[in-house]
């Protein structure tokens, strides 16, 4: 209960442990601890965090980064007296603040987190962690994989992780990759693989017990109801007391712990398409289980409802029947055959038990063949999804710079087909080529599931297997419920000297009406033909944002045709972006866009707007924006504005302007400090004329030549920040110019 001024002087003298404990007291006294946490960051981390201007809580930022650095052994807590406190357990006390965690290389972090002495740390992470990332992974042994299984089971199946991202894995270990994908999708085999330090997962056991009690109660109620109906059918023979005694006898029998808890028969709904649906299978019984004298009533089948944000009930399994931890991955490295009749071959394990092993082409395998995926034998090491149980799954999956082979694509496709909790999928630089059709096949099957939540698909790669617009048509035809679609390619595919033939199913089929709101297309220097874009826009009446990148205009009239189509087909369009599209000869169309009353944000990024323009064109742009009260954001990066054009843009906010422009982006425009200062002075004059009120709130100045006169730049920025929020960087223009010359 210290006064605020005393507390403010005391806080910088506290260790991290005591600073954490003083947070509530500081909040009650109205004292902010943010400057102290920021100074801690500067003193301990000694780096500038990316996007520091967007950090709202330095306490969380520090503790989250601190946790990661300690976990990976890159920070010594004895290096600073504020960290070196005998009461302070680095991982334990910082873990509640961790919402994003990255595991690297040999997964040493997974081994550390699943160690017995870090049990409470893992429990904290299960409640706080939202994003789990894997980066630069390497092959690892079975003991490390066991730790990874435990970690994923706790953080995904029984935790709150909603996003799994993997990046920079040039030569992925197929078994490890499919393991992470399968567990992210909520699949895992029976609980004998989920032992924690020799004991079964406690959460699974608790849920098993709850399900057993629920099942017993339902069975008792059914028995009681059947008894009453039977009594009524025999002219009320037998008293109510006798019926109640019968129910009690049933209950007493069910209270005896059975030797076997049969697996809950929850399955995903059958997918009505060519894709094989994935279902959870019941576990087999041992000989001792078959001798149980108390059969447990099975619950009726019901539709699977995995949901992110709530814990899935684990499927019941035999108590006391857990395999030795050394056998955890035995099932991963087995391959069997499926005969023509569809029956499974039974192979004997080292323990003499029958296990169901599937080939890569079996219906329950991750490598199931289906339309769009060639049927070929996959490698050993993939477990059967039909024999797997279904747990809670994540809603976002991201794969960056990870080559996906045909076998891996088939595995992913089969997982996607019933991954009903999945909302966002990002596939970036995976070398998909023709395998994109395999991925789409799985997503098409998913889209037909009644509980499908899939809304966002982003695909980017080095080479395009087919023309961009054809791929867009294929995706929208398969996934009409998409809200966001992003397709991006760097280069055309010139292999074999020609492009692949068009898919007539995509090119000629009419696109169904879609829910698309955001469409982003990055063309690999392909011509932008409005005729090909027209069917997409006609089917996307809800489109609000359109981005066209790196397209070429085949004729001068093409942009005009595009504007007519946009006006006719997309009445809800609010944001329009052109990047690296040469608009130097399309001044009329640029002005038409700037006066469009429906658009709220327009981006002309590196579009060479002023390459061959006159001073009159700039004046027309300014006057058009001044008369348009609908436009809120204008982004003009990379158009060589220079000092004189920047100063002229200040007239957008003159006294006679009706503009509502809030955001202006003039990054990468060769602006020097003296030009920025003159712009600032002119802006201040307009503000004074308007009585101190203008709508302008944000200015972006990245990668300009402000380092050429630091003193003038600082004065300009200081005065600008009194007017609006300014975002800039410490860019070395001389080095950038040298880099540019070196690659010419």
Automatic annotation (TrEMBL):
Keywords tagged on the record: Leucine-rich repeat, Phosphoprotein, Repeat, Signal, Ubl conjugation pathway
The signal sequence is 1-22
Species, as recorded:
Struthidea cinerea
Keyword Transmembrane listed: no
Task: State the InterPro entries in the record.
Answer: Leu_rpt_41 (IPR026137), LRR_dom_sf (IPR032675)
Q: Where is this region: Disordered?
A: 207-312, 345-371
Recorded hits in SUPFAM superfamilies, A to Z, give: RNI-like
Quick one: a GO cellular component term? nucleus
Asked if the Swiss-Prot or TrEMBL record annotates the protein with the keyword Repeat, the reply is: yes
> Superkingdom, according to UniProt?
Eukaryota
Name of the featured protein = Leucine-rich repeat-containing protein 41
Bias (Basic and acidic residues) = 219-245
Q: Where is the composition biased (Basic residues)?
A: 296-312
**Ranges of Low complexity composition bias in the record:** 277-292
